[in-house]
Write a structure and sequence with these properties.
Chain lengths: ~240, ~60
């Protein structure tokens, strides 16, 4: 028969251990809820904000036919501001409501608010490669359906003055994270030969991992001034 | 642990319950506002760019 004191201390140890286990379990559940749900809420909020910012900015300045930012005081178009939205992207394959802002640079903070434009790559519609990265999972899952992209799918970018309709050239291509040649002006392995007006989308592969990347390439198919209304791919 | 906190809260059972609930909410708020945003980039879901040695990209904050 053990003494009452040792029974009490044993109970204390067992109880404290159980409480710690429950606490850790609760923490894990909360963290999963944060990653799966709350990041999506935050990203949807930030994306709505970004699109609203763009719409009000575009409403203030008259639409100019050129592809560059018309308010630029200098001869060249004004540079995009880091971490700020400058265009919207729609991909009908991902659903009619799928619209995300495209922000400048691909830092983690930027990609939490929408899609990120690789700094230094071409602007929408420019000769070269307009390269954009996006989350496949978490933060709103913008590129969740990335593997469903097929040749001929439209990727429509609006920079406030022009609708740029790009066409996916081939099924998504899987590569390693260090393969930066996929965002070259003439992307390697894209099948494109010679300079052109290209678009590259990148996201992670596998869905919940980071060992590889999925790449989709497109080429500029049509442009349409915003004043003429939405392109046929969005209205049809 | 929780028993110790309960015993050190002031007031009767009702007051203690309210204070305990507020404490829980404060902890959850701090987790969602500060701890989880710090911890989340350590997961691989943000690695969506091609960027050479994962420097400066959307990686795990290297």
């Amino acid at each position: 028969m053990p003494s009452p004191l040792s029974v009490r201390s044993l109970r204390l140890v067992v109880r404290t251990f159980s409480e710690l286990c429950i606490t850790v379990g609760t923490l894990i559940v909360l963290f999963v809820a944060y990653v799966l749900l709350w990041t999506g809420v935050k990203a949807a909020d930030a994306a709505d904000d970004g699109i609203a910012t763009l719409n009000s900015r575009w409403a203030r300045q008259p639409a100019a036919p050129s592809a560059g930012a018309p308010s630029a005081p200098s001869a060249s178009p004004s540079p995009y501001r880091d971490g700020k939205p400058f265009a919207t992207m729609r991909i009908p394959r991902f659903g009619s409501g799928w619209e995300w802002p495209v922000l400048e640079n691909t830092e983690a903070r930027t990609l939490q608010k929408g899609l990120g434009h690789y700094s230094g790559t071409a602007r929408p519609g420019e000769s070269g490669n307009f390269a954009v990265a996006g989350h496949r999972r978490t933060y709103g899952d913008p590129f969740k359906d990335f593997p469903k992209l097929r040749p001929g799918d439209a990727v429509i970018v609006n920079d406030g003055t022009t609708w740029f309709t790009y066409r996916i050239a081939k099924e998504p291509y899987r590569t390693v994270p260090t393969d930066t040649a996929v965002v070259d002006p003439v992307p390697r392995r894209s099948g494109f030969e010679g300079p052109g007006r290209y678009l590259t989308l990148t996201t992670c592969e596998p869905e919940w991992g980071s060992s590889h990347r999925l790449i989709a390439w497109a080429h500029l198919d049509a442009t349409r001034p915003v004043s003429e209304g939405k392109p046929p791919d969005l209205t049809g | 642990m929780y028993g110790w906190i309960w015993r050190h809260l002031p007031g009767n059972a009702w007051v203690r319950s309210v204070i305990a609930l507020l404490l829980v909410l404060a902890v959850v708020y701090a987790l969602f506002q500060y701890v989880f945003p710090w911890a989340e980039p350590l997961l691989p879901f943000g690695d969506v760019t091609v960027d050479g040695a994962s420097a400066g990209g959307a990686g795990a904050g290297q």
